[in-house]
Design goal:
The protein has 156 residues and is an alpha+beta fold. It contains 4 helices and 7 strands, in the order βααβββαβαββ.
Length: 156
């Protein structure tokens, strides 16, 4: 699937909120996304589907939200619409984020993920993330959260 990546804007929030709602329990609220959009340390991106040769904007099919905190970053949320999962949307968003972080000389990127989310773990580990710690019974349903870190390939 071909996607066009770009910055998230307020006009994207209905679709972002919809994708978050079918991707996470509990999902982020609209206010949380609005807060990140207004934050100078946030990096909010969206992915839109595009047919080959198309340059215009297609339907929003994914998003990523991260915070840059000096030499570190945290991937706060990333998701793709159920209809396009396993088609490379999440991978495209993640690669674009990591390339940007490397270009900014960010030394490490952290994230947390449900221990049972095998597809997400496989994606993160395939891009250099390693397990750093476990937060036992972190989620409301008692599932553990894994803390992952990716050290920059360009940091000195």
């Amino acid at each position: 699937m071909r996607v066009v990546l770009g910055p998230m804007s307020a006009r994207d929030l209905d679709e972002v909120e919809r994708i978050a709602g079918v991707s996470f329990a509990p999902p982020w609220t609209r206010a949380a996304f609005e807060g990140e959009l207004g934050s100078p340390i946030a990096r909010c991106s969206v992915a839109r589907s595009a047919a080959e040769g198309e340059s215009g904007e297609g339907p929003l099919v994914g998003f990523a939200v991260a915070r840059l905190l000096g030499p570190e970053a945290e991937l706060l949320s990333i998701a793709s619409a159920p209809s396009v999962r396993r088609l490379g949307v999440g991978r495209a968003l993640l690669v674009e984020l990591l390339d940007d972080l490397d270009g900014r000389a960010v030394e490490a990127c952290f994230l947390e993920v449900r221990a049972g989310n095998a597809p997400a773990l496989a994606l993160y580990e395939s891009h250099g993330f390693a397990r750093l710690d476990v937060r036992r019974a972190y989620y409301e349903d008692g599932e553990d959260a894994l803390i992952l870190v990716r050290r920059s390939t360009s940091a000195t």
